[in-house]
Amino acid sequence: MTVYVEKVRALEIFDSRGNPTVEVHAYLSDGTVAKAEVPSGASTGEKEAVELRDGGKRLQGKGVTQAVANVNGPINDALKGLSPYNQAEIDRTMIKLDGTQNKAKLGANAILGTSMAIARAAARSKDEPLYRYLGGCELEMPQTFHNVINGGKHADNGIDIQEFMITPVAKNSFRDGFEKIVNTYHALKAVIEEAGFETGLGDEGGFAPNLNSSEEALKILRKAIIKAGYKPGEDIAIAFDAAASSFYNTEDGKYHFEGHVWNGEEMLKYYDKLLKEFPEIISCEDPFDENDWENFEKFTAKFGSTHQVVADDNVCTNPKLVRKAIKDKLCNSILIKLNQIGTITETLETIRLARKNNMTTMVSHRSGETGDTFIADFTVATNAGQLKSGAPARSERVEKYNRLLEIENQIGVENERLNHFPNNVDFD
């Protein structure tokens, strides 16, 4: 029996920040139904694919009824009768239908929701878990990065670096590493309380104490790792996402950072001091503005041999921009966000391109999330190697980690049956 896409239908739902987003249901001719929910970012790069919003007064202009109408109308009409098992054809059809460089006509939220829903329906129709359907046989569990202290646009405090993350570098399994993170997270809460600060949570489940500086945040984080019984840098390492575009002033070309007004050279000196003072930092994301490629390149030239340097806003999961980043030696790692580019197929192309050029990849959630666990399966399927999905708090974050625990268990059972354990393989 030939299986085809019977219809796709969308509706407006709400994300973890209470903002509207798109949910898409895919219906196949064999009776299979699956849905996908689209996340939304707060710190967004100007080169990202367009998240279509209605504007006007309703819901502060953030409604997505037009994106929903685009799924129910032209996208549905274009995809009816196509094979759900040919993801590239599904995605190419929507890209051609949109006809713009940044998916401004139909909306990346409409297109991505449809792309994800059909992939999930195809997997369900084949009676395969999504990670196996997308990824094949040999799979690996990711290294996870957890945003446990929030600053920047993710919190209302005095810290300008947006995310302070912890990652389990010494672990026997994904579960063992995640338990270490949970222990450190609870120790961090105690350390913050002991220091006399509030322990309210930011958008991504991390604490948002009203600290005076990023150095103070790192000292508290180091203390929490030790309090939890681990060695900083050996058991639990630290990473940060500066999201520097959020404190870069385009008018004077300076970085307005925690009471300072610095040029690129002065900002670089600050990072040099920070990384020397905190050797447990292993990964740095977006240390400079998305258009300040010159200083970003200088950062990578200086620290790229000892640290992972992740580009997000500069490249926006866009293969064209990643090619430029490779040519300019901008970074050594690419952040992967499905909704920055808008389809599964284009995201896979970006991952392949990065891996071919010896760059690491880190799949990422958004600050406005839903309970959808697609990125957990996607990270395992692509052997992306790394995932960041917030703190081990708030259900929309923890759902991703619980899904990874399920996948680890399933892979273990499968490999016990096949009498082998999965090995790292080249993505190609």
From TrEMBL:
Principal location: cytoplasm
What positions does the domain Enolase N-terminal occupy?
5-134
Q: Where is substrate bound in this sequence?
A: 154, 163, 285, 312, 364-367, 388
As its record notes, the protein acts as a catalyst of: (2R)-2-phosphoglycerate = phosphoenolpyruvate + H2O
Cite a GO CC annotation. phosphopyruvate hydratase complex
Binding, (2R)-2-phosphoglycerate: 162, 337, 366-367, 388
Record keywords, A-Z: Cytoplasm, Glycolysis, Lyase, Magnesium, Metal-binding, Secreted
Give the required cofactors.
Mg(2+)
Subcellular locations according to the entry: Cytoplasm; Secreted; Cell surface
Record: residues binding Mg(2+): 241, 285, 312
A single GO BP term for this record reads:
glycolytic process
Q: Which Enzyme Commission number(s) are listed?
A: 4.2.1.11
InterPro entries registered for this protein in UniProt: Enolase, Enolase-like_C_sf, Enolase-like_N, Enolase_C, Enolase_CS, Enolase_N
List, alphabetically, the Pfam families matched: Enolase_C, Enolase_N
CDD domains registered for this protein in UniProt = enolase (cd03313)
Please list the GO terms describing molecular function. Answer: laminin binding; magnesium ion binding; phosphopyruvate hydratase activity
Q: How is the cofactor bound?
A: Mg(2+) is required for catalysis and for stabilizing the dimer. Binds a second Mg(2+) ion via substrate during catalysis.
Task: Quote the pathway field.
Answer: Carbohydrate degradation; glycolysis; pyruvate from D-glyceraldehyde 3-phosphate: step 4/5
Which residues are in the Enolase C-terminal TIM barrel domain? 138-423
Q: Where is the active site?
A: 204 (proton donor), 337 (proton acceptor)
PANTHER family the record matches:
ENOLASE (PTHR11902)
Looking up NCBIfam families in the UniProt record yields: eno
UniProt function note: Catalyzes the reversible conversion of 2-phosphoglycerate (2-PG) into phosphoenolpyruvate (PEP). It is essential for the degradation of carbohydrates via glycolysis.
What family does the Swiss-Prot or TrEMBL record give for this protein? Belongs to the enolase family.
**Name by which UniProt lists this protein:** Enolase
Q: Which organism is it from?
A: Lactobacillus johnsonii
